[in-house]
Design a protein that fits this description.
Largest sheet: 6 strands, mixed
CATH architecture of the largest domain: 3-Layer(aba) Sandwich
Radius of gyration: 24 Å
Bound molecules: adenosine-5'-triphosphate, magnesium ion
Structural class: alpha/beta
Number of helices: 16
CATH superfamily of the largest domain: P-loop containing nucleotide triphosphate hydrolases
Shape: globular
Length: about 500
């Protein structure tokens, strides 16, 4: 048996535009291989060729198990033991965990009526094989993202798997859940399953990958051993640039802060929240999932109004009981899960962009000026370096990170006084991350107050004037100033299993 499980040389064009250019790529049996590159560099396209979803341009060479494969269809790919978990997971939310896991097998057997016990037995076997615990009879829709991910993995393992491909599996997971997933991948490796793993979180790649292949603009830069790389070199190889981070500008404290929150509480979510935000300030909020940070953001945006406490904007007390009031008071919110945040996937980039900005443009002029709207959309798409042939392209055809940029652009374009960004750089490549940090600094320098919620302490350190750490619904610590280290902040974000005191 050859040591190489799969090798290929492929190109791929869409409507004459080459997005993969003679990419030579191979995967060894049982290895953990990571694919890196900026948004739109061709990672997902390469994965879709391996899984038979896309056919490569003519002249491609693909070998699996040492034998040449002339045409790799989805079915054939599965026959070779290749399974892919896409970012949207493709689960059925109303079906139970067991049904979701067993469904592929059942469909493959062509049976329409299957006894519940059979299904449960099949699912139990998969769950035990992976070594995870899942509530087999619960509907999948009610599970956390992490558990849904595990359901998708268990489903993949209903048949023999030689290669498990995961396209950004960790974007919606917290650090603890990511560690659990990485452990599952390592366990699978012990059973001989190779993994191909795409992630924009470089620390995960260093944690787990044995080889790293880097793509840039559809070309392969090389395949490396992680010991040859560090974050700086990896980002240089991905982008061709040395990234520099601007220093955070100090804020000038005024008599009346832009935002003042006092004694804000919501039963079961958060309690006695007190903080202020100045004009031009970037305030970071971090904490584990369930610490209440997203619930707090939702309260400020009127999606989860608080029970008690006060919110003042420029000294004026405001009751935020709906999104309408929040937006009228100058608050915008970019939610954390880009797949859920209202992109209309079959519509064009321009239409998606205008969904939010529209009201402002029509409001000010009283009528819809479509030329003006178009020009505005084009300007923002350009400023955010969204890689798209035009604003008329269907948003679904953009790479994931570029869709994310459209979402960010459209909220920032509403020109709020206070912008709340919940995990804005998840799924975004390192060069785009640094351009988003620069945008945040730029907006702050114009006087906008920004609340940045993030899991990544590094990111907060690059971007924020102050960092609040939340735990079990209250603010546990505040950090600022020179000499602050990642370790200082990280050590405040610790698990604690004490009772819920919300
Ligand atoms: N079906 C399609 N039709 C037209 N263009 C496409 C299609 N699928 C992908 N592309 C283009 O191919 C290029 C590579 O996209 P791909 O999704 O492979 O990038 P990626 O490396 O996965 O990026 P990300 O990190 O943002 O997910 C992009 O410019 C994208 O717009
Ligand atoms: Mg992708």
């Amino acid at each position: 048996m050859s040591e190489i499980f799969l090798s290929m040389i492929v190109s791929k064009s869409f409507s004459g535009v080459k997005v993969l250019d003679d990419v030579e790529f191979n995967i060894r049996r049982g290895e953990i291989h990571s694919l890196c590159g900026e948004n739109g560099s061709g990672k997902s396209t390469l994965v879709k060729i391996i899984s038979g979803v896309y056919q490569p341009d003519s002249g491609a060479r693909i070998e699996i198990d040492g034998a040449s494969v002339r045409h790799l269809s989805s079915i054939e790919s599965i026959h070779h033991g290749i399974q892919v978990i896409y970012q949207d997971l493709a689960l059925f939310p109303t079906l139970s965990v067991a049904e979701n896991i067993a469904i592929g097998q059942i469909l493959a057997r062509g049976k329409s009526l299957v006894r519940k016990e059979t299904m449960r037995a099949l699912a139990t076997r998969a769950v035990n094989h992976i070594g995870v615990k899942l509530p087999l009879d619960e509907p999948v829709g009610g599970l956390s993202m992490a558990d849904q991910q595990l359901v998708a993995i268990c489903r993949a393992f209903m048949s023999d798997v030689n290669l498990l491909i995961m396209d950004e599996p960790t974007t919606a997971l917290t650090r603890k859940e990511v560690n659990a997933l990485l452990n599952v991948i390592k366990d699978l490796q012990r059973n001989g399953t190779a993994s191909l793993f795409i992630s924009h979180k470089l620390d995960e790649i260093f944690d787990i990958a044995e080889r790293v292949t880097i793509l840039r603009d559809g070309c392969k830069i090389g395949t490396y051993n992680p010991s040859e790389l560090d974050t700086k070199r990896l980002s240089f190889l991905m982008t061709g640039k040395n990234l520099v981070y601007e220093a955070v500008s100090p804020v000038v404290k005024k008599d009346v802060p832009l935002l003042q929150v006092d004694g804000l509480s919501k039963r079961g979510n958060f309690r006695d929240i007190e903080f202020s935000l100045e004009r031009g300030e970037v305030l970071g909020i971090t904490g584990l999932l369930g610490s209440g940070r997203t619930e707090l953001a939702l309260a400020l945006f009127g999606l989860n109004p608080a029970d008690t406490g006060s919110i003042r904007i420029e000294g004026q007390k405001i009751v935020i009981d709906s999104v309408g009031t929040a937006m009228k008071s100058g608050i915008s919110y970019v939610p954390e899960n880009r797949l859920l945040q209202g992109l209309v996937l079959r519509q064009s980039v321009g239409k998606n962009f205008l969904l939010t900005v529209h009201r402002r443009l029509t409001g000010r002029f009283g009528l819809r000026d479509s030329r003006r709207q178009r020009a505005e959309a084009e300007k923002w798409i350009h400023d955010f370096e969204v890689k798209t042939p035009s604003i008329d392209s269907v948003i679904e055809t953009l790479s994931g990170g570029n869709q994310q940029r459209v979402v960010l652009a459209k909220w920032i374009a509403t020109n709020p006084k206070i912008l709340i960004l919940d995990s804005p750089t998840v799924g975004i490549d390192i060069a785009a991350k640094s351009s988003i940090y620069a945008t945040i600094h730029h907006l702050a320098s114009r006087g906008m107050g920004i609340i940045l919620i993030s899991d990544e302490v590094n990111e907060l350190m690059h971007t924020c004037n102050r960092i609040l750490v939340m735990q079990r619904g209250h603010i546990k610590a505040e950090f600022s100033g020179d000499g602050l280290t990642v370790q200082d902040v990280s050590s405040a974000i610790v698990e604690d299993n004490g009772g819920d005191c919300r």
